[in-house]
Every structure is written in C-alpha cells, then in structure tokens.
Amino acid sequence: MSAESPIRFGILGCAEIARKISRAITLAPNATLYAVGSRSIDKATAFARANNFPPNARIYGSYDALLDDPDVDAVYVPLPTSLHIQWAVVAAQKKKHILLEKPVALNVAEFDRIVEACESNGVQLMDGTMWMHHPRTAKMCEFLSDANRFGQLKTIHTCFTFAADPDFLKNDIRVKPDLDAHGALGDAGWYCIRAILWANNYELPKTVVALRGPILNEAGVILSCGASLHWEDGKVGTFHCSFLSSLTMDITAIGTKGTLHASGFIIPHREKEASFSVASETGFDEFVTSWVPPPSDHIVTTDLPQEALMVTEFSSLVGIVKSGSTPEKKWPILSRKTQLVLDAVKASIKKGFDPIPIEY
Predict the structure, then answer these.
(1) pLDDT tens digits for range 272-291
(2) 206 in active site
(3) How far is CA 302 from the centre of its chain?
(4) Is-contact 50 42, C-beta < 8 A?
(5) Measured distance between the N- and C-terminal CA atoms of the chain, rounded to whole angstroms
(6) For 312, how many CA atoms within 13 A lie in the half-sphere containing its CB?
(7) For the whole model, what pTM was predicted?
(8) What domains, with CATH codes, occur in the chain?
C-alpha cells in the first residue's frame, strides 16, 4: 500500500461522537471508513447504515475482531475514558495507529502506558482535540507570536460551559464515576487547559491551584470547576468548565501590547468560518468614549470542517509512518502535558485547594 492510498479506519464503538468522526473520515481526502466494531453486531450494523459507511464496510460484533482485521490501518477510539488504557494498548499491539478521543486517560500514568505501547509498536498516536486543526488556530498563533503587536503573554482566560439537560446529568457516561470519572473537567476542561498551554507555547506551569466552589454530583463526579495555573515568570492562566451554564467557549489572551479574543474556539459558530478579534496598542480617544484604534475582527474560512482537517492530518502522519518514517511525537507530548494539568486540578480539589506542583 502506498502512502498516497487512503488510510483505512476502523471505529471502536458506536458513541455519539463517533457519528461526527465518521462524517469527518468520509470528508477527509486521504481516509476511508473501512470497519466498525461494537459489542453488539446489530448495533454496529445500524451504526454503519446510519452513518454512510460504504456498502463493503466490515461490521464486527466485538472490538477484538476489528483489531484482528489486517486491513485496518488506524482506529478511532471514542470509548469511555476508563476503557482507553485497555483498548488503546491492544490496538497498538495489533499495529493499529490510534486517534484517541479526549480526555486520553484517567491519569498520566495510564497515558504513559498507552504511549509506551504505541512507541514500542511504531504506531502514530493523536488525541481528538479538533480545534487544534482549524486554520483559525494557526492564524491566532501568528498574532500571539508577534512581539510587536501582542508582546509578551501575561495572562490567559478560557472557559467552556454548556447547560446539560436532566437526562444528561443523570445518565450520560460523562457523569458516571466508573466510565468518565473526570466529568466536566475531562469533557470541557480538557479544551480549556489545552488552550492555556497552546497560548504559552506549551510551557508547563510551575503550580496548579483548583478554584474553590467546584460542584460535584452525588457520585463525586465534577459537574463544574475551575483552576488557576501559575508560571515562575508570573504568567497566570485561569479556566472555568461546567455542565451547568449557558453554552460558552471563549479564549482571552492578554499580552504586554495586545489582546486576543476568540468565541466558539472549540466549535466555531459556523462550520465553514470562524472568527477572532485582536487589539494592539489600543487606548482611548480624547473624551474616553471609544477605543483608538478599535479592535479588528478576522474571519477564517475553511472548505473542510475542523474534524475532517484533524483526520486529514492524522492520516497524513499515518501514511508517512507506513512509508518507513517514525511516528510524530508532538501530539502525544501535547496530550501528556494536558493530562498532567488535568490530574493536578483533581489533586488540588482533593487536597483542599492546595497548590499542586507540576513536573513533566
């Protein structure tokens, strides 16, 4: 198989998010839906039919059967976080490249085992943080890297909240301690943490302190929380994530010379365009009634949605590995740093909001 041939994807499980990624694989020019596996053959068959799998797609009644298929190049793993350690390791051992849904693991020790399995078997690993692959993200990064317009980063604030319905708060896997024990911190906070690290060139903070007042359900799963991240040079990042508030996805990065705002940074307001605004060396007019110069708005368009761009980039990396190169290590490193901070937030909550030192 040449590097130019489409990467053949198998999907492990029929989670709701797998519908979105199935569509993304269909849209990606270098990938194809090849197989789906579920613990129920009927469920797998229905999923394939509902999500436009090709007529010759392979349907499996177990995850093992899909992973044993020698023609599957890569797998997308949207299983509950508690199952990642088991099935990602098995997938790596079966030489399958892995697109792993976030959060990647229950803790960094588990993720290290996944990484070790991928490295020892020469397979590519990437997590499913879709917004990283939107062209808006690269454009925003250009501004943050511009010493003349943005200056030096001083602080960054991020939030991701949505108002979950009563059925979600009672029955969704993201509120079950045995399935997705991170709750809102893993589901929504992951994106906030990644954005903070992204704005700071992925330099890890020295300490992490959970904010007081987290809301937990009866099973002890986080429904709402926040934290502050602190660097030795005085930079501070804060975030808030929640299943209990109106839909909001914002970044505010403030530098010595400029400010960046982005709304809908995780999922753009519109599929094929995304916006952000910047202000640089802005002040007030004579009567302090307006900003001079005013912030400028920027719209970035894309033919493919960000999840299809993610699949395209992942598939390109897989193709490079299949042609004889070694896997790209950037993505597992970013996953690990995000997981480290997530773990520290949980530890700070558990220890009465004490500062938790971060060591890579």
Answers:
(1) 999 999 999 999 999 999 99
(2) no
(3) 19
(4) no
(5) 38
(6) 14
(7) 0.96
(8) 7-129+307-327 (3.40.50.720), 132-306+339-357 (3.30.360.10)
